[in-house]
Design a protein that fits this description.
The chain contains 16 helices and 14 strands. The chain is of the alpha/beta class and 395 residues long. Helix 8 packs across helix 14. The longest helix is centred in the N-terminal third of the chain and has 26 residues. The radius of gyration is 21 Å and the shape is globular. It starts with a strand and ends with a helix.
Length: 395
């Protein structure tokens, strides 16, 4: 039986986001697996190029990279206000790269199975003549994340068209993997004959050498994510604005970049918060950096199961998070501190943390135990391997 497989995405591995972290972590973990044949992805200016990873068997694993021009970014904010132009932009950002990657995968890869990391790519892989496993890196509604970035297509013909694409991607797939049970149940109900699994993300294991202890007059918070409305960092800014206690006792570094950086930075400066709220931009070694902070906070309005929260677990950080995506499925109230998606809730919790109302060591210890038992990359891959075996056994 041919067990060869590839990872594929229509995104660029030069980007900094959870899906890219997932793929890179898995790519590194599988580098010595003879069945694994590398990554196909889209990105990198200057045309197609190839990267090679030599395994312990001295066999190169090919990574195929495509180029995407970014000259239209300057007019993006104008286009997305009009439904027709918003849909054209969506096609440029998502469908065109997916079609190009699908075309190259079909022509160039001899692997038996494709693990696709987005619905648009799976939509275009209908004629690949390979086994197809689709991972939906989203909340309980994959379309919702798109609608946040393209609000003008909501409720109209174009939203209906995107939902049909999602449905076709699921039909094309031999198996679908979701990051939460709610989405799994929704897909299973709509496609009762389809193999649908919930597999929670995992990250590399990092030895946790210390529990929470802060010797500074400031609590050092860290948030990780793109600077978009979906990630909710504006709520943190509001909490700082509304609380003198937080401004005097808390410093936060936000790791990530995005379209809202300019507006968020302006609000921070206008409210005299530049000394306590710092935008650090994109970083490539998040898990190494997180260990230098006291608390991790995730204020997102919508998520699947973010890689950043798992990386925080892996270095024993106490976690403050909203109840979004698979997070409340995975973590109990004894393992993380939950907040609502509003600034008042964030303010209340941060003030309580400053006043030592929480046993942060207990939270970090319990979350780390959950990570070690269920959320490491080893635990995750065991479940994906089982899915591949089931798919290959179908003949």
């Amino acid at each position: 039986m041919d067990k060869s497989f590839i990872l594929a995405t229509s995104g660029s591995l030069k980007s900094v986001n959870g899906v890219v972290s997932f793929i890179k972590n898995l790519h590194n973990y599988l580098s010595s697996d003879e069945s694994y044949q590398g990554v196909f992805h889209f990105g990198g200016r200057g045309g197609e190029r190839y990267q090679s990873l030599v395994t312990s068997q001295d066999k190169p694993k090919e990574t195929v990279v495509y180029s995407r021009s970014k000259f239209l970014l300057a007019i993006k904010n104008v286009l997305i206000r009009v439904p027709l132009f918003a849909f054209f932009w969506l096609c440029y950002v998502y469908l065109y790269p997916a079609k190009m990657v699908a075309k190259k995968v079909t022509r160039s890869s001899s692997s038996n199975t494709i693990i696709s990391n987005d619905m648009f790519l799976s939509f275009f892989l209908s004629n690949s003549n390979r086994k197809l496993v689709t991972i939906l890196h989203s909340s309980d509604n994959p379309i919702n994340q798109l609608l946040i970035y393209f609000p003008s297509i909501k409720g109209g013909f174009f939203e209906s068209l995107i939902r049909k694409i999602l449905s076709r991607a699921i039909v094309n797939s031999d198996a679908v993997v979701t990051l939460n049970n709610a989405l799994r149940d929704t897909i299973s109900k709509a496609h009762p004959q389809k193999l649908v699994y919930t597999i929670y993300n995992g990250v590399p294991h990092v030895k946790c050498e210390a529990t929470y202890e802060s010797n500074s007059q400031y609590l050092r918070l860290v948030g990780v994510g793109s600077l978009t409305f979906r990630k909710g960092f504006d709520l943190i800014v509001d909490a700082f604005i509304n609380s003198k206690l937080i401004r005097e006792r808390v410093i936060i570094d936000i790791l990530g970049d995005g379209p809202e950086r300019t507006s968020l930075t302006k609000r921070v400066i206008d409210n005299g918060l530049a000394d306590v709220i710092n935008f650090k931009g994109n970083v490539s070694n998040v898990s190494e950096i997180l260990g230098g902070y006291d608390i991790f906070i995730l204020p997102s309005r919508d998520e699947g199961l973010p890689i950043a929260i798992l990386e925080a677990c892996s270095v024993c950080l106490p976690i403050i998070t909203t109840r979004v995506g698979a997070i409340p499925e995975v973590f109990t109230e004894q393992e993380v501190i939950y907040i609502e998606t509003n600034s008042k809730s964030i303010q209340k919790v941060l003030e309580s943390v400053v006043n030592n109302d929480f046993d942060l060591s207990s939270y970090s210890d319990d979350a780390y135990k959950k990570f070690s038992d269920y959320l490491s990359i080893e635990a995750m891959w065991k479940q994906y391997y089982t899915v591949l075996e089931v798919v290959n056994a179908k003949g």
